[in-house]
Amino acid sequence: MADATGGRARLAGIDRTGLRASASEAGPQRTCIGCRRTDSRSVLLRVVAEPRGDGNPVVVPDPRRRLPGRGAWIHPDTVCLDLAVRRRAFARALRAPVEGVDALRAWVDEHSQVTPPSQKTESGFDADEHPMSTQR
């Protein structure tokens, strides 16, 4: 049984390809060159190829997104960085032969989001065995 609109109401949120709903995109979307997943631009780190003194470019982070040149996007974690290095994705994405990612690896290691186990906070349930309790 078809509805009065001929089934078009059900497809209103899907684009012409049928792949993505336009309502789910909250802002600019970029693809990580490591894991190949799309994510919002605010989550990903922009990287650019910067020439060294000998003329060979190296990959450097661009957290402010202001450096000149062609940029690529990557999640700021070591897993995506290792995948991008293994797949040689930086040279393809930046359209330049790049020599090293040492500056990028140092930046990722310094700014990683992993919290050491000794600094983790307790959840409400662990603190006083009542998950929604505010009393200690």
Name the CATH class of the domain at 24-113: Alpha Beta
Estimate the global geometry from the Cα principal axes.
globular
How far is the first residue's CA from the last residue's CA? 58 Å
> Given the helix and strand composition, which structural class is it?
alpha+beta
Main beta sheet = 3 strands, antiparallel
> What is the CATH topology assignment of the domain at 24-113?
Hypothetical Cytosolic Protein, Chain: A
**Strands of the largest sheet, in order across it?**
4-3-5
What proportion of the residues form beta strands (DSSP E)?
15-25%
Instruction: Average the pLDDT over all residues and give the rounded result.
Output: 79
Low-confidence stretches: 115-119
The CATH architecture of the domain at 24-113: 2-Layer Sandwich
Radius of gyration: 22 Å
The number of helical segments is 4
Roughly what percent helix?
Answer: 10-25%
H-E order: EEEEEHHHH
What is the strand tally? 5
- CATH superfamily annotation of the domain at 24-113: YlxR-like
